[in-house]
């Protein structure tokens, strides 16, 4: 029977995210929604997604936000997404990212930016999954999951951890604000110098870059070296660095769990037969 093809509870977060985002065929979506609405756990998860979307839209209209995301950062994030779309074996690394259009009706504010954590980006926590009150005073979000319209073209499939791009976007915007937004972007004149703590705002400068030189510039050598070190994951960026007084390569990977990112430092002589893992740390 046709109903046999409809997924049954318990529903995975990936399936619920796709349903919520409108990434399912319309026929399947219509059959699945009634079943999902009868599942309390599924509804809690969908309400948490609506809450995150509402928070992000509210953030876009916040008078305290100084500037839109710098064009250089936007381009690099777009490059990461495009590269991940083309990552081989997508069935193992697929996730959904919601692209929220900025509110064009309201111009960017120029008030000072508040002190925020680079990683305060609305990611889901255990608190977010608690039942949400629906009698909110907000006109934009009432706690009820929205069934997406068929024209939800702003949503894309990508091969990355679900919240990683939002996490990194927050870090870059915060770091850009701390540096000063009037500075003209310039190429680094020399390899980045890293300390042992792998500071998040520092290592994330490799996002969307593929500037490694030498043997590791060959993609197959780099991926082979990472696989030999037990880090066979999607690559988000790489660049030359100096670590512990020696030349090395910094590589950003999808983390072991959403929404983390793994920063890895490899020796320049790293090969699939002899992995030279100098340091690694999970961010987020």
TrEMBL record:
It comes from the Bacteria. This is Anti-sigma-M factor RsmA. It comes from Nocardia otitidiscaviarum.
